[in-house]
Structure formats: structure tokens, C-alpha cells
Amino acid sequence: MSYEKVLQADHIIVGTKQTVKALKKGTVKEVIIAEDADYYVTSIVAKTAQQENVPYTYVPSMRKLGQACRIEVNAATVAIIS
Description:
The chain is of the alpha+beta class. It is built from 4 helices and 4 strands; from the N terminus they run H-E-H-E-H-E-H-E.
């Protein structure tokens, strides 16, 4: 599951704005998106990932994604950096 990918990653970026910036820079290996996050917000990340040919995966929970990032708040998107 993708939560494990986040836990095992050496470098991650948490948050929608930062993920989009990193995607445009070309430094992202993979994007993880929480299904329960606001669609308007996550659709921008998914569209940018498609444009940059970066794979993205959906996970069910923002709360669990935040925990996988070792932060105390929910996370809508996470970028795994190459």
C-alpha cells in the first residue's frame, strides 16, 4: 500500500501547493493523493502529475496519510522525491 511507500521514502513533500511546485520542477518520483480530500484541490495535483508524466496513487484517508508523513495533521497530497 502507498502509506508504506511514504514511510520508506527518504524525501517527501507534504501539501498541495508544494507538490504542484515540485511536479513542475520535475523532481517528483510519485504522488500520493488522499481520496477523502477536497476534489477541487486534489484534481489540480492529479492533472499536473498527468501533464508531467508522473504516476499518482490514491489512498483512502488524509488522516492516515498525515500519520505516514509523521505529522500531526491530515495530508491531502504527498510527493515522493527522486
